[in-house]
Design brief:
The complex is a heterodimer of chains A (about 350) and B (about 400). Chain A contains eleven helices and nine strands. Chain A is α+β, with helices and mostly antiparallel strands and about 350 residues long. Chain A folds into three domains: about 80 residues, Butyryl-Coa Dehydrogenase, subunit A, domain 1, CATH 1.10.540; about 90 residues, Butyryl-CoA Dehydrogenase, subunit A, domain 2; about 150 residues, Butyryl-CoA Dehydrogenase, subunit A, domain 3 (Up-down Bundle), CATH 1.20.140. In chain A, strands 1, 2, 3, 4, 5, 6 and 7 form a seven-stranded mixed sheet that branches. Chain A has a two-stranded antiparallel ribbon with strand order 8-9. In chain A, helix 5 packs antiparallel against helix 7, helix 7 packs antiparallel against helix 8 and helix 9 packs antiparallel against helix 11. Chain A is globular and about 70 Å long. The two termini of chain A are about 30 Å apart. Chain B has three domains: about 90 residues, no CATH class; about 120 residues, Butyryl-CoA Dehydrogenase, subunit A, domain 2 (Beta Barrel), CATH 2.40.110.10; about 120 residues, Butyryl-CoA Dehydrogenase, subunit A, domain 3, CATH 1.20.140. In chain B, the strands form three sheets. In chain B, strands 1-4-5-8 form a four-stranded mixed sheet. A four-stranded antiparallel sheet of chain B has the order 2-3-7-6, with no helix packed on it. The longest helix of chain B has 29 residues. In chain B, about 40% of the residues are buried. Classes of the chains: A alpha+beta (about 350), B alpha+beta (about 400). Chains A and B meet through helix 7, strand 9, helix 8, helix 9 and helix 11 of A and helix 7, helix 8, helix 9 and helix 12 of B.
Chain lengths: ~350, ~400
């Protein structure tokens, strides 16, 4: 039984944690929150240079050639430090789709730029949700028309992989006929944009069943985001715990009141369950196990719930001060909600989990 | 990261499989239990025969040193044995307290001649051990024990009552926590003894549980005599001895949640009807099935993390303390939901329904006990808050007060 990460993988995690603690500070995140920067460029550059962002991209395509387990731990740290970087858009979604659906030539053409941070990419897959976008995209084999309504990091990305029906197409966002509109969001540290395409040149990725590939990419992203969520949840619980030891009321540390102790014990319990599911997802993803759809959905639901609870109760545990702009509680509150809906809602993923379980019990 | 055995673990597993195949009987149905159709006495005799075989092969106490009757093995080997044994028809619970609590306490604290007297017959199942800590006035607050031990020459005279003692009705010996000094604060006036449950003055009465079963007993002591050589640890050192007994549990990676409960819900939801459609088509029903899986698989994965620590020769981390908390409540919620799915029929006793119902209703009626035994949900939350999260302990008004004064209030 070896259901844990290796010492080498933990060393990478430690290095990423140290870098993020220095660079993805509250002040740095607030530069993005308050609109003075589109993302934390320094943090992104460091993640690229350390080989952390491209941990799971093979060396032959310019990546670090480590693997998904390493990327999972990078994700946990990014979540913990609220890194305001396009890690999920460029790496979990776009690079993942290119790796899984691209021809050899397509991979050689686009992956190295993403892996080396020269290109920020993004992606959107309609199969993430059960609702239908109001004006679906259309692709005639050469040109893309229509609107991608809420594309993560859409304002700063140069490249997008988009699902159009059963196809995955890749499109240069600096190409002709692209109109971008940055959208105000509930978590400004993770920006979204609307992108309209008017006959923009685009290229179909090779995979025959793009929708099936999209489902696998979403599974991978669900596992990676679960690590971000577990990282964020664990951090806000630590902040609340620390504050409860510092703050006194009625002549005692507030953390000595059983109502608060039990609340924090319950949050911890939710986080550890989510962590266990995230590890299982990491195992399924890294070993390409047939259990991946079930493991990914379970990790996604458990981690979404854990981060939402931790973030909501994190403010409650702080009391009034937690409701101020200056405290970081709301950064976790915003991020928890953002991550909860980024690749399909908790409800959608719980339904997917049930589908898998019921299918298996046939 | 993988779920595989190391080469050493795989070799040990093969060895265990070979031994079990040669000596045990495999379960033929998943719900088949040991000693089906036998009366209590015949079942106990069969259980003792099995335990003797197991002890002779060294599997009774795998982690114990060889000179004490063990195998000198690792905690991981212990787990591997249990995993393999689970497929066989073997006695459940009967020797659990002997092997898990009674005998380890004797091994740690008793004089050499007592170890020579008790360890071998205990491991071989010839003598069965009980644990006598809880009392009507000392449940979660074990330090409030009132059973009295008074020295009388080379003997101690015991008077009082213990409760929730499993196996006492067929037990031979027990480890008994009693109060020897009423002028010291509660935890400092306790002493641990070995008590002969067949001695004059010991009366054992089964407890009729809310589930209808009687797995536990009340044990009454009236002028029971215990020789001083049966004392475990120093006079006044009972609390420390008890903690060492309970520490054994930290190395176990328990958590008792069946991993197929969501399948029972799926089977039921396929046959039950909601809004004139199979209930399985209802989104809320499907969500509950998913949530049942999330809890039970989560517990099982956390146990895998604990096993990983054991496999590396480490002690499982504090996250293990959440398994019982989650498992017991999940059992209650899942079985309740199963009953709800069945509508009015869900209100019938299981004999009238057949199928999965005896199992599901046993879970429902047993889960309130599971949420209390081995630490209530509330005690476990305090343990997590204090030992894992480092939050302050509860404000205590009883720490420095002589027990005699506490007892008066």
């Amino acid at each position: 039984m070896n259901f844990d990460f290796s010492d080498d993988q933990r060393l990478l995690q430690e290095a990423v944690r140290t870098m993020l603690a220095e660079n993805s500070t509250s002040q740095a995140v607030r530069e993005v929150l308050e609109g003075r920067a589109t993302h934390s460029a320094k943090v992104w550059q460091n993640l690229i240079e350390m080989g952390a962002a491209a941990a799971a991209i093979p060396e032959s395509y310019g990546g670090a050639g480590l693997g998904y387990l390493e990327l999972c731990l990078v994700a946990e740290e990014a979540g913990r430090h609220l890194a305001a970087v396009p890690l999920s858009s460029s790496i979990y979604l776009a690079a993942e789709a290119l790796q899984r659906a691209g021809s050899e030539a397509q991979k050689r053409r686009w992956l190295p730029g993403i892996a080396q941070g020269e290109v920020i990419a993004t992606a959107a897959f309609t199969s993430a949700e059960r609702y239908r976008a109001p004006s679906p995209l259309s692709f005639d084999g050469q040109r893309l028309t229509g609107t991608s309504p809420v594309l993560p990091d859409g304002a700063i990305a140069q490249l997008a992989v988009l699902q159009v029906g059963k196809d995955l197409v890749v499109v240069d966002l600096n190409g002709p006929g692209v109109r971008r509109t940055a959208l105000p969001t509930i978590d400004p540290t993770r920006p979204l944009a609307q992108i309209e395409f008017a006959g923009t040149p685009a290229e179909r990725l090779e995979a025959a069943d793009g929708a099936a590939v999209a489902a696998r990419v979403l599974d991978a992203a669900a596992v990676l985001l679960a690590f971000e969520q577990v990282g964020g949840a664990a951090r806000i619980l630590e902040l609340a715990r620390d504050y409860s030891l510092e703050r006194k009321a009625f002549g005692r540390q507030i953390g000595s009141f059983q109502a608060l102790k039990h609340k924090m014990a319950d949050i911890y319990t939710r986080i550890e369950l989510a962590r266990a599911h995230a590890y299982y997802g990491a195992w399924a993803l890294s070993s390409d196990a047939p259990e991946l759809p079930r493991a990914a959905a379970a990790a996604r639901v458990a981690a979404t719930r854990a981060f939402l609870i931790a973030a909501e109760e994190g403010i409650e545990l702080h009391g009034g001060i937690g409701f101020t702009w200056e405290m970081d509680c709301h950064l976790y509150y915003r991020r928890a909600r953002h991550l909860a809906q980024l690749i399909g809602s908790e409800h959608a993923w719980r339904a997917r989990l049930a589908d898998e379980l019921i299918k298996e019990a046939a | 990261m993988d779920f595989n055995d190391s080469p050493d673990e795989a070799a040990f597993r093969e060895e265990v499989r070979g031994w079990l195949a040669a000596n045990g009987r495999r379960r033929t149905r998943p719900d088949e239990v040991f000693g089906e159709g036998l009366d209590e006495a015949a079942k106990l005799a069969l259980a003792k025969t099995w335990q003797a075989k197991k002890a002779a092969a060294g599997y009774a106490a795998i982690t114990w040193p060889r000179e004490a009757g063990g195998m000198g093995g690792t905690a991981m080997q212990q787990v591997i044995y249990q995993q393999e044994e689970a497929a066989y028809l073997v006695p459940q619970m009967i020797f659990e307290v002997s092997i898990g609590m009674g005998l380890p306490t004797v091994l740690r604290w008793a004089a050499p001649e007592l170890k020579a007297r008790f360890l071998r017959p205990g491991l071989a199942g010839e003598e069965i051990w009980c644990q006598l800590f809880s009392e009507p006035g000392a449940g979660s607050d074990t330090g409030a024990v009132r059973t009295r031990a008074v020295r009388d020459g080379d003997e101690w005279l015991i008077n009082g009552q213990k409760v929730w003692t499993s196996s006492a009705h067929f037990g031979d010996f027990g480890i008994l926590l009693a109060r020897t000094d009423w002028d010291k604060p509660k935890q400092d006036g306790l002493t641990m003894f070995i008590v002969d449950l067949k001695a004059p003055g010991v009366e054992i009465r089964p407890i009729h549980q809310m589930s209808g079963d009687s797995e536990f007993n009340e044990v009454f002591f009236t002028d029971v005599r215990i020789p001083d050589q049966y004392r475990l640890g120093p006079e006044g050192g009972g609390w420390k001895v008890m903690l060492s007994t309970l520490m054994q549990e930290r190395l176990s990676v328990g958590g008792n949640l069946p991993t197929d409960l969501h399948r029972h819900l799926i089977d039921l939801a396929r046959t039950c009807v909601w809004d004139e459609r199979p209930a399985i088509e209802d989104a809320r029903v499907r969500a509950r099935i998913a949530d049942a899986y999330l809890d039970q698989q989560g517990v099982s994965l956390i146990i895998s993390r604990g096993l990983t620590a054991l496999s590396k020769g480490k002690t499982p981390g504090p996250e293990m303390s959440i398994t019982k908390l989650v498992a017991a409540k999940a059992m209650q919620e899942i079985s309740s939901f199963a009953m709800e799915l069945a509508g009015p029929e869900g209100l019938l006793a299981s004999e009238a329904l057949g199928g999965d119902w005896p199992y599901l209703q046993r879970l429902w009626l047993g889960s309130p006990g599971a949420r209390i035994a081995g630490g209530t949900d509330e005690v476990l939350r305090n343990v997590i808050a204090e030992r894992v999260l480092g939050l302050p302990g509860e404000i205590r008004t009883d720490r420095k007060v002589p027990f005699r004064e506490l007892d008066r209030t």
